[in-house]
Amino acid sequence: MHYSAESLADFAHTLVAWYRVNARKLPWRETTDPYRILVSETMLQQTRVETVIPYYHRFVEAYPNAVALADAAEDDVMKLWEGLGYYRRARNLHRAMQVVRDAYGGEIPDDAEAVRALPGVGPYTAGAVMSIAFNRPQPAVDGNVLRVMARFLSITHPVDLPATKRTITDAVDLAIHTEEPRLLTQALMELGALVCVPRRPRCEMCPVASACLGRQQGTAPELPLKTAKKARRKVTVVALWIERDGALLAERRADDGLLAGMWQLPMVELPDDPPYSRDQLYLAARTRLHKLAFGNTIEEDVSSVAEKPAAVDFVIAAEARHVFTHLEWRVVVVRPVGYHQVHIATQSDNAMWVPRGELSKLVWPKVYQTLLSQLLHGLLVL
Question: How far is residue 81's CA from residue 63's CA, in Å, rounded to a whole number?
């Protein structure tokens, strides 16, 4: 792989000229407000443009500036984000705007290091804000840009290696100093989204095809290379459907980690995903139920559930699977039959009885939204 400053300047000029003619009309391209750029870039992480557009409109209408978002209750922010996924993005964005309110007078600073230090802001997002909002020559390198540049420069090292990312970032840094930064950043994104797509690059439509080393060498469809991914860890989750007087028992997840601060049914996570028998699932449910009723006094160890005797008086009410980036859940909703919830009466910050009609007011992970929809709307009768 080799390139010169001159070749990258030509690349940048050609690409920006193409972008001026072919850019899609997207709502966040109608502004250079750094707050709205940060909101859009946060939403666009691992989420399709078409999905983001209505969420973006609703979000900036509800919270038109950094201070409005900073002053909002976290539960309200999470509820507005519901359905967009990757909820940590919403929590971090909320916290970032609280920093902006408290440390910068409610205005996102025109300073790369300060933006990079905000909660949840990585090198790409900081580069996007600095280049698009402030027109600073700051490279913004995401998966789209890695793919475009790996093909254009015929980079045959895995792009997820730090050294390869550094090489590509350095090349983009050279290019962005030769053009209007906000236009080149968006042009690179647009080329990756519309033309230099993952599996079948549309080289015949590409404005820089004549200079693309990957096309010349016939390697473009195979690039970029990545290191082998680890297999997703599979986990069985046994969730309890416990009702009392038309209200459902719900618990709130911890404020950090996976699905932080969201609501779920009381659950127990089994260590892996073998073909658990029904009785083994019921035993896990019974263990969790006893702990809800009597505290953590029961001696049964859920991690050795496969060795425990069968439990009774439960039925499986619903089941769903959900895939995270590095984890796959199989969620089995189990309902105790004939169980009286006389002992499960305590309401606390992380557990409460929720009337059926008010369940939608809470923020549930997508897999629980699916299960609740099935269980509450007649697909399964409880």
Answer: 12
